[in-house]
Amino acid sequence: xxxxxxxxxxxxxxxxxxxxxxxxxxxxxxxxxxxxxxxxxxxxxxxxxxxxxxxxxxxxxxxxxxxxxxxxxxxxxxxxxxxxxxxxxxxxxxxxxxxxxxxxxxxxxxxxxxxxxxxxxxxxxxxxxxxxxxxxxxxxxxxxxxxxxxxxxxxxxxxxxxxxxxxxxxxxxxxxxxxxxxxxxxxxxxxxxxxxxxxxxxxxxxxxxxxxxxxxxxxxxxxxxxxxxxxxxxxxxxxxxxxxxxxxxxxxxxxxxxxxxxxxxxxxxxxxxxxxxxxxxxxxxxxxxxxxxxxxxxxxxxxxxxxxxxxxxxxxxxxxxxxxxxxxxxxxxxxxxxxxxxxxxxxxxxxxxxxxxxxxxxxxxxxxxxxxxxxx
Length: 376
Known about the structure:
Blueprint: H1 2-9, H2 12-15, H3 18-35, H4 41-55, H5 67-77, H6 80-92, H7 96-100, H8 104-110, H9 113-127, H10 135-142, H11 149-159, H12 164-176, H13 178-189, H14 192-195, H15 207-224, H16 229-244, H17 248-271, H18 276-279, H19 282-312, H20 331-343, H21 350-375
Helix pairs in contact: 3-4, 4-17, 5-17, 6-11, 6-16, 6-17, 8-19, 8-21, 9-10, 9-19, 10-11, 11-12, 11-21, 12-19, 13-19, 13-20, 15-16, 16-17, 20-21
């Protein structure tokens, strides 16, 4: 009987606390969103499963010498995983639509306004006593508005590592919810006539342009914002391997095997930070709310910038593609294309939307560098 009691007392059921139960439900919800609804399954599956492992009582897999904690130390404390992800994303990116229509760079830049507006909002709410965020924490929350998971993780790991779990979950959740969040905002800011605008065919971009662009981009940005060089440098390196045509094996490995392995490890490492004692705190609600505000503002300012460019230029831009400036590649571009087809069945905007979409990735990396440079 004593042995049975000892076995019962060491069981997870006996040791389960209410907050751990809540986090187990949160982790199961992430898995449902990934599998049942198809929301960012490549990230939410490992994050959700990592959260399950981290909250089972008596399992020390996410602390000390546990394997998930080792993944976190190896890949997130050093910033290695987000940088490798960015290299893989660069290898899969085609700068052609952006180079064919450089004006769309303004849309990606405008969409980053949500990052800085939310930073100021978080600081303002702290001064009012509603929250207690430092400038570093406010900057880490604001970067959620870029809708770029690796960038958000990279900045949070440097400026506010204790918030990493909540920020990562918020960033990837809002990326996954792009098809639900963006359409109402876009429809409210545009007219039926604007959504029906048909854009002219993009010009063909030469191979030479595509080879030179990542090198020129990196040098110019790094000279102005050195803190942006790690993220943007890996992004441009991956793209350079793709476009130079001389290292197809390396480019293929980066686009497939490497990014897949790193994605698994990054998701499990982030899941290790979904432990109840770290996630279920008052600041988490503030992070989720402010992250949503940042994302919504970024979507709105991208659309409004497109409308402004239409006032200043004879060549009209469909404002729908401005929403793709928040990054979230390629889901935001697909949403813009879907809304365009709803307004006009002959209106194919996908390639046009990829311009601001790629510009948003560049913009979020630059914004991250600015925040790190001035907030650290």
